[in-house]
From TrEMBL:
Listed name of the protein: Glucosamine-6-phosphate deaminase
Keyword Hydrolase: yes
TM spans (from-to): none
Organism listed in the record: candidate division TA06 bacterium ADurb.Bin131
Functional summary from the UniProt entry: Catalyzes the reversible isomerization-deamination of glucosamine 6-phosphate (GlcN6P) to form fructose 6-phosphate (Fru6P) and ammonium ion.
Catalysis: reaction(s): alpha-D-glucosamine 6-phosphate + H2O = beta-D-fructose 6-phosphate + NH4(+)
Amino acid sequence: MRVIIRKTYEEISLLAAELVKSRIEKKDNFVLGLATGSSPLGLYSALINMNQKNLLSFKNVKTFNLDEYYGLRGDHPQSYRYFMDVNLFNHIDIDKSRTMVPDGTTKNLEDFCLWYEQQIKNSGGIDLQVLGIGSDGHIGFNEPGSPLSSRTRLIALDAQTIEDNSRFFKDKNQVPRFAITMGVGTILEAKEIILIASGKKKAQIIAKAIEGPITGLISASALQIHKRCTYFLDEDAASELNRIDYYRFVEEAEGTIGKEIF
């Protein structure tokens, strides 16, 4: 695990975008795992800018999204398919048929979840997975108590998640109670992972996820065992880390031996 800390959200978003760009440029038919929510918006904005300036192409990229609200059609303004179209896909040169988001209206959940997992495998696995983190430490919609070996499935949303996400709906009662999500085990199979977090509200859970015990009660803590995971944090999100000086030292030391963070 590597922890990159910068003063502002804009700085970490640009750094994360440079990492994504470097990975896409190194491999044909790159498979990119994507997340929704506010955390990756700066990254997506930077990637759009790169694409529109002809610095990066997505023509040979395939994407898989982590999750989708169960019961929402893809054209619903609060669906994650709609979110991805509006905040990324509509603005880059990607083939929409190569952008995979779970189907929130599927009638056969078990078969669909098995199919989604198989599509990831058929594509060669996810090369790089982008993550945010919920206020209770969830990644995807893997709520507290999710097995660390879990696979893509339907999950009931925690009360805290419903409260957190209610800001996107007219009132809390409109927030779906279920979602389809990649499991923690599915996420951990990605070859590389980046997690972006910003703001004081994320500081306590970031400290627990990075420096606390590995537990199903904080699904992000499972990233501690991943061989290639990088956290991109602004100073506010990193403010409760006990080993913040060490993380800064490691990045500086890597620079002195010619090892770039990418």
